[in-house]
Amino acid sequence: MDAFQPPSLAHVKSKKVKELASLRWQQYALQNQLQHLQKTRLAASPPTLLAWREIANALKDDTTEQLATNKALQRQRRRYQRLCDYLQRWVASTTPRLRAPSPFLEGWRHSHLFAGDEGARALSYNWLLQQVYRTTDRVFASLVFPNRWHNAIDVSVTIHDEMRLVIHVQTQQVVPFALEDVSRGLWIAQDTLCQELFAAPDDPSTLLSVPSDDVQYTRENVGRAMAHNVLTGRFHEPHRTVICLRSILHDDAHPASPHTWRFDNKEWNVAEMLEPRLTRVRTYYTIDHPCMADGFVSLRDLAALRCLDSNDFEDDAHLLARLERISIDKHIEQRQFFMQHLERTLRALTRHESQIPRRGVLATSPAVS
Questions:
Q1: Residue whose C-alpha is closest to residue 240's, from 279, 201, 266
Q2: Given a cut of 80, is residue 92 above it in pLDDT?
Q3: How far is CA 208 from the centre of its chain?
Q4: Which CATH superfamily is domain 130-350 in?
Q5: Which residues contact 137 (CB under 8 A, 6 or more apart)?
Q6: Residues 196-222: pLDDT tens digits?
Q7: Which DSSP state fits 161?
């Protein structure tokens, strides 16, 4: 102790030091308690809380998305409303008939596309194609095909009312390619058949609509007086692919002349996997007698199209037999060509042996007239 420091001051200083030490100890204890409480709170609640700005931005984005969804639903509702209006007018114009339906009176059996926006027409495309696709197994159940490893072509003609020919064609082809490749190659081969068959660099068919990769609507200009509007759809299943075709006899958006020849055509192509790299393609299609707006084309006019002089035949029965033979030979030749065309297309796709066929570019292959 300083000799010059009074005893009272020394006592006060000692007391202050003790109080300071006590406060420091209390501070340390409170800090430990605070840390313990914070750890307990973190364990019982989320680690962080979102800032109000982030919450506001999230709500804004969600509102924008909901508005876009609402507008899309409103557009879809208006599209369906227009379609319902079309159907109501059509149903109102179609009265029930007691007699057998005529091929030239409108009814549900006909393929009729209304004019309208592309959304409504795309729905109609799917509707018509689904009807053909859903009948695939029923149609094939009545057909007889050869052993699964053999290629075959069978063409027959049935005569209706002694003046109308209906062509029936069924084929089977086995190709050493995977189902996925055949699914793609069969679609391409179908799409380019006209230009390859007629050896026409200027594709004789016109794309009218392609709403998706598996649906297309085409107009085939078969000849000077004949046109064929055809809807094509592809349906994928686990072990097979089905490609369906259906004629559109009436299209308000693309009307045909009353004197243009048309024909009703339905076709089913079923590519089925036999082994991982072996696929069987079975095809069946029917082609009805050519018709115009006022009825079926006469046998004499059909003979002229086939470059036949009807005066060379004794009667219609002999002329009919000759037309039947020509139709059979013509479709056998066409199916043989298509089988070769499909194999060339598959080799081009998988082995790059030649150029893949596409619209407007004629493949370097011999043509069949």
A1: 279
A2: no
A3: 15
A4: START domain (3.30.530.20)
A5: none
A6: 887 665 556 788 999 999 999 998 877
A7: T
